[in-house]
Every structure is written in C-alpha cells, then in structure tokens.
Amino acid sequence: MFKFLVYFTLTLSALFSIEKLNTTREHLIIPFTEYIAQISAWIIHFFDAQVITQGIIIQSLSNGFAVSIESGCNGVEALIVLASAILVFPSQWRHKLYGISIGFCAVQLLNIIRIISLFYLGQWDQDVFEWAHLYIWEALIMLDVLVVFLFWLKQLPHIEKPVA
Amino acid sequence: MFFILKLSLLLPFCYFGWYYIADSLTLLTGYLTETLINTLFTELISTIEINHTQLDIIVNVTLPKAQVPTGMLPEIVISINPLIYSYGLPVSIALILASPFQAWKTFASLILMPFLLLPIQLWGVCFELMKTLFLQYPKEFTSHIMLYPWQNDMIAVAYQLGALVLPSVAPIIFWIILYKEFVTQFVPTYEISR
C-alpha cells in the first residue's frame, strides 16, 4: 500500500507537470477542450437549438449566458489521477490500456453532463450554479474516478501462483 | 454496488452538515492562514476579516510615500473562499459512513478526517493568496519581499496542485489508508495453480 501511494504520487506529479507545459496546453489540452465544448453543444442541440460554441465557450443565443470550459473543468486532471492509479497498480499492459480507455469514457461522459447541467443551472440561479460548480461536481467527478478504479480492480484476473 | 448506493444517499446529508458548520471551520482556517503566512513573510497580513464563509485578507503592501496619504497605511484586500479547498470533507465523511461500520474505527476516522484535510485547505488558501499577491498584483506592492523566479514558479505550480488536485484526491487517499482492509477486497487475489 505504501509503495503504491508513493509511486502514485510520483506518477501523478509527473503527468500533472507534463499537462501544465505550454506545448501540451497549446497542442493537446486546448484543442481537446474545444472538442468537448463542441460535443456538449451538439448534445444540447437535441433540445435547444439556441446554443453556439466559440473555442472553449458555450453560449446561449436566447439570453447571452455563456460558460467557459477552463482548466479543471475539462476532465483532464481527473483522467490524470485515474491513469496514475492504473499505471502504478501491478497488472498487464493490456489491462492498463483497457482501464484507462474505459475510464476516459466514464470521466468524459460525466464531465459532459456536468458542463451541460452547469450551463442551464447558471441560467436559472447563480447561487445554485456556484454551489454545483465549486463544490458538488468537483467531488462527483473524483468519486467517478474512484468507482471506475475499483471496478477495474474487480475486473482484473486473479493472479496465478504456481505451487512450488 | 451497495457501497456506491450508500455513498450516493449519504453525500447530500454530508454536504448539508459541512455547509452548516462552514462558518466555524472558516474561523479556524482564517486564524491558521494568518499565523502561517506571517511566519513565512513577517507581518505581511495585517488582519483577516471573516465574512460568513469568505476570508477578506488585509495585506500590508509597499507603495511610494507620495501615493500614501498622511497617517494611512497602504493595504489591499484579497478575498478568498476557503470552501473551494475543503469540499473533500463531506466526501470523505460520506466514504467513511458508507464503509463497513466498526464503532471505534468509524468514530475515530470521523474525528481524524477534518484534521487530516485541514492542511489541504490551508495549502489551497495560502497558495491562492501568494499567487494573487506575488504573481497578479504589481511587483512594487511586494518590493519588500524578494522572491527568485523559481520561487514564483513554485507558487504557481503549488497553487494549481492545491486548486485542481489535492482537494479532491486527498480525501480519497486518506479514506483508502484508513479503510485499507475494505478497499483491498477489490484487489485481485492469488490463486494457487497446480
């Protein structure tokens, strides 16, 4: 357990540092965030056509309200935490890739639900928006990471240990 | 599955309880922030005013004498919401309550967890203050404090860590450490093959 936590912390720090590099932000994080904004707007269009995106901003044409998907709201940090935990836990590489791929989908699915819910909460009530944005959704995303990690652990095959 | 259901049901109540005692928690955070920062940078903080759950930190700054009216001290107010660094507390309480109940262990964990998470909150508040003061305000405001470029970089990284990662990850890590036996039941076991 201690070894896992030490390696997890080191891997998390390394991946976090890479994520904060200007090159990574410019060529990977920002385009990815813009893509998330576009996907969110595409989903919103099924029930509200009065929405546009501009880069990382989603805006309502009916009342001008807009949300900007900043660092911390694009699910990247949550993915880094999950990836760090999966990479460090002893398992075969194909199981790690499987876990990270499924985790990516699970985190981004919940993240898109977060973005869309905050977009409409902000138009309804600013206090509720603040609460949901600052306190509740941050925790839910990280609990999502924990649940995915525990499910991944449960799916790992039992380790065969031959009798001497 | 039952664990996740229990967690989902407990979370709203834990959030309600956390916000109910938020004023008291903010008092403690404010006092400790002033002590910590003034230990690092002598008399940087003049005082901290608590406004419900917001810290209004009154910081002593430097300005040219000509810009300061006679008899007045140059100060700026930096407002910080400490709750954005402590939302992990209701999460950790919910995790403890959703875990298998053992009287002494559950109560000890419930008492211990706020103290384990307090440094995380202080980290966030202090580095947000330093980031705002040293990286966002004009350099002349803090001309009496010499920081090297690497120290400014460290403040920026520490702030990002304290804002984006620590408040959500730390509660889960502490819970895993406290409930190691429960969490390890998810870990694949050895099977003897013949």
Quickly describe the structure:
In chain A, 71% of the residues lie in helices and 9% in strands.
Polypeptide structure, described:
- The complex is a heterodimer of chains A (164) and B (194).
- Chain A has 164 residues and is mainly α.
- In chain A, 71% of the residues lie in helices and 9% in strands.
- Chain A has one domain.
- Chain A has helices at residues 2-20, 22-44, 76-88, 93-124, 126-155; strands at residues 51-54, 57-60, 66-68, 159-162.
- In chain A, strand 1 and strand 2 (57-60) form a beta hairpin.
- In chain A, helix 1 packs antiparallel against helix 3 and helix 3 (76-88) runs parallel beside helix 5.
- The mean pLDDT of chain A is 89.
- Chain B has one domain (2-186).
- Helix content of chain B is 60%, strand content 12%.
- A 3-stranded antiparallel sheet of chain B has the order 1-2-3, with helices on one face.
- The longest helix of chain B is centred in the middle third of the chain and has 34 residues, at 103-136.
- Chain A binds chain B through residues 1, 5, 12, 16-17, 20, 71-72, 77-78, 81, 134-136, 138-139, 141-143, 146-147, 150, 153-154, 156-163, and chain B through 4, 7, 11, 15, 81, 83-84, 87-88, 90-91, 157, 160-161, 163-165, 167-169, 172-173, 176-177, 180, 183-184, 186-194.
- Strand 4 of chain A pairs parallel with strand 4 of chain B.
List the helices and strands and how they pair.
The complex is a heterodimer of chains A (164) and B (194).
Chain A: H1 2-20, H2 22-44, E1 51-54, E2 57-60, E3 66-68, H3 76-88, H4 93-124, H5 126-155, E4 159-162
Antiparallel strand pairs in A: 1-2, 2-3
Chain B: H1 2-20, H2 22-40, E1 45-51, E2 54-60, E3 75-80, H3 88-98, H4 103-136, H5 149-164, H6 166-178, H7 180-183, E4 190-193
Antiparallel strand pairs in B: 1-2, 2-3
